Amino acid sequence: MEMKLRNTDVTLMTKGPIAKQMIAFAIPIFLGQLFQQLYNTVDTLIVGNVLGAHALAAVASSGNLILLLVGFFNGVSMGASVVISQCFGAGQHNKLSRTIHTTVAAGILISIVLAVLGRWLSPLILVWMDTPAEVLSLSNEYFEIYFTGIAGLVLYNMLSGILRAVGDSRHPLYYLIVSSVLNVVLDLYFISVLNWGVAGAAIATVIAQAFSALLAFWTLLRADGSHRIELKKIRFYGDELKAIIRFGIPTGVQNSIISLANVIVQSNINQFGSLAMAGCGAYSKLEGFAFLPIMSFSLAISTFVGQNLGAREIDRAQKGARFGVWCCVLMAELIGIIFFIFAPQLTAWFDRNPDVIAYGVGRARNNALFYCLLAYSHAISAICRGGGKPAVPMYVMIIFWCIIRVSFLYITAPLNNIQFVYWVYPLTWSLSSIFFAWYYHKKKWLDPIRMALGQKEN
Fold first, then answer.
1. Which of 43, 48, 57, 41 is nearest to 139 (CA)?
2. How far apart (Å, rounded) are the C-alpha atoms in residues 75 and 93?
3. Greatest extent of the chain over all pairs of C-alpha atoms, in Å
4. Alpha carbons 261 and 303: distance in angstroms, whole number
């Protein structure tokens, strides 16, 4: 594998055919996320089939808690990527270099903070989530190991974000493939051979994530151009840190608020017992595949919009945004239709218990056909971030995906019907999509660049 990042590996998206560039950029991200989701799914399959339903519940239901503690910092990483893409599009090489080194410094600090917070808070949050007693000790064991090695995940997200911001989505793909294969091999060895149980699954994940981070870091150390990392330059630069915070904090708050709401949703599912946890956890792993086109085209949209607005190519940014939205929505809905039809067979891969399958199928058939709305909300959020309006999706998600979501659960909780827990997602996706459709049609996401050019419309 070629480890040196050459100038030919980066992509300036301000010229050339829009559809070709966006698809060429999105496909490696899609494939990388696919491999990541596959190894996460295999991880869950091995746990469920070798260790049983309780271990499956402990691992499969971990996603929301991890996102709660990691989501804010992932948002900061996304904010840094927008700043980097705008600097790259504008040809501001010195600012680009300072932003990249500030991003790496932030990743190191965030890794330390998350390791401490994760180990301290996760046992408390698990109790608060009403995690069943038969699952609690396994969940604690998993999280203790996971957050000890959280640096691999944080730094990989930061470093791959840098690569994508300068138009290189191929190297992150290579590293995810390598880490995916490594994770599966280690899973089989630690769980099936060494009998390490849930701890083996956590250790395998930590090692695989750390290896992918090391590959990305080594690549940027050897890169050509102003996006190269130099160890002596890794520190916080004031102006660049302010820009990262301005773009990253709203996205981080958005991620954390959504994750908090989802933790509350998970706590409602937990009240229906470990079988419901296992069934809904299995569905969540399947749902991760629906996020593949959403993630890949959202990242392509924010990078494309960021680079083109940095270069003052407003019309081109609008065309790319529109193309990205359509791709994102159509692909997510296609996956949703497949999940709706084959939900029983797909859920049975994780656990053949009829009750576990029933819970997984119930959630799939309430949610899957609405993936188009989920995709639309994420795509418009990506446009807003790339356009310098990260606060807009933050406020929208807080209102619709947190306040309304939690309020709906609170109102329906006395009815003791898990169907209401399932329906909370399509409801809130629909409401956010209605607002985003209005906002996008009004082109308000272009206000920052219009103001910069003195072309703000009344």
1. 57
2. 24
3. 68
4. 28
